[in-house]
Design a protein that fits this description.
The chain is of the alpha+beta class. It is built from 16 helices and 7 strands. Strands 1, 2, 3, 4, 5, 6 and 7 form a 7-stranded mixed beta sheet that branches. Strand 1 and strand 2 form a beta hairpin.
């Protein structure tokens, strides 16, 4: 008995308690998201996969309406796998990072063709599919199939780096953060090996989603609400009062500004457009004709790349420029306009489309900006 009396009581927030504290918090405060079923209901792998692809480099608020449009049009992976790439790109238009849409379609086709419209239930099987990398495979495996693995997104990186005060800067710190995040997976109950294994898997997805929700709602980049955090007693960054200094990040290198020209040609109520090559930036998307996008390009050089139409003898330059920022570089486009007669033919590789139906075209945001700037009219079509 004296030996027991000398033992210090374990304080809440000690490493062994963290997974349980995290899940208890999640059970009370889990976010309601379009792709997340209510507690206790079956998780649909299709919805998990679709949401994870959409959420890559895009926020929850932006993704929500797109996700709902997709599942209304294509309620399962079989329906999506039978859709055309053009239809998928049109539905994706405005969400950005369009290689995701092409990979999404390719993955749906592969699941339908090679797996009978059923997603593989292992990380290895998922990673063999187009567009699914290590993080996405882990997320689907954990959330949809209960695999005991921890996917690490930006929210989880922030929570873990603060909790353990990871001094190494991102992206070099990723392996260390991954290792530490795994310690927050729910522990199994006491009992036989079979029941422990089942329980360990059953809430692995909840552990991951709990950390995601914690990062999104409490452990935010600025002014985290540490007083409300279920893990605050064991958080090293909180104890130091240095929460906002984590995660450590190496300075970002700014991309070089690229310049170009866009040519907006109207024929009555029609607009001249073309489809970009399948491979490369904005592959397969619709655009107005334009020059190459090159650093230091002069206006005269860009103007020489205008489409050749017999009826156009002079291009009218619009005041100002259209600015857009891609992941690796900022872009500025000078916009030129021209009007041609009703019978003017489209140059090879281009086509006329009614301005009223532009909303049905797979226009990336930069092209929407260009057209709105050129036409200077109601943006109801956008």
């Amino acid at each position: 008995m004296p030996a027991l009396a000398n033992k210090k009581p374990k304080h809440p927030g000690a490493p062994a308690d963290r997974p349980a504290l995290l899940l208890a918090w999640y059970d009370r405060h889990r976010r309601k998201l379009p792709w997340r079923p209510p507690a206790g209901e079956r998780v649909d792998a299709y919805r998990v996969w679709l949401s994870e692809i959409m959420l890559q480099q895009t926020g929850v608020k932006t993704v929500g309406p797109y996700f709902q449009k997709f599942v209304a049009r294509w309620p399962d992976v079989e329906a999506l796998g039978r859709a055309s790439l053009d239809d998928v790109l049109r539905m994706w238009a405005g969400l950005g990072y369009y290689s995701r849409a092409r990979n999404l379609h390719a993955c749906a086709v592969a699941v339908l063709r090679d797996h009978g419209a059923v997603f593989p239930d292992t990380e290895e099987g998922l990673r063999a599919l187009p567009g699914i990398g290590p993080y996405t495979a882990a997320a689907i495996a954990a959330i949809a199939f209960g695999a005991r693995t921890m996917p690490v997104d930006g929210n989880i990186e922030r929570v873990v780096s603060r909790l353990f005060a990871v001094e190494e800067a991102l992206p070099q710190a990723k392996p260390r953060i991954q290792q530490l995040a795994t310690t927050l997976l729910a522990a199994s109950r006491a009992g036989d090996a079979k029941s422990r294994a089942a329980d360990a898997k059953s809430r692995a997805g909840d552990s991951a989603q709990a950390l995601m929700d914690l990062g999104a709602s409490i452990c935010t980049p600025k002014k985290p609400a540490c007083a409300l955090c279920p893990l605050n007693e064991g958080c090293i960054a909180f104890a130091r009062g240095a929460q906002e200094s984590f995660p450590r990040k190496a300075p970002k290198k700014a991309g070089t500004l690229r310049l170009g020209a866009a040519f907006v040609v109207t024929r009555g109520d029609q607009l001249l457009v073309r489809t970009r090559p399948e491979q490369g930036l904005l592959g397969g998307m619709t655009e107005v004709p334009g020059s190459d996008w090159i650093a230091g390009q002069e206006v005269k050089a860009a103007l020489k790349q205008a489409p050749v139409l017999k009826a156009v003898t002079r291009w009218h330059r619009k005041a100002g420029v259209v600015s857009h920022v891609f992941t690796h570089f900022p872009l500025e486009l000078v916009v030129y306009t021209a009007t041609v007669p009703a019978r003017a033919a489209a140059p090879k590789g281009m086509r006329w489309v009614p301005i009223a139906t532009l909303k049905d075209e797979a226009l990336p945001n930069v092209m929407r900006k260009v057209i709105a700037h050129a036409l200077a009219r109601s943006a109801a079509w956008r």
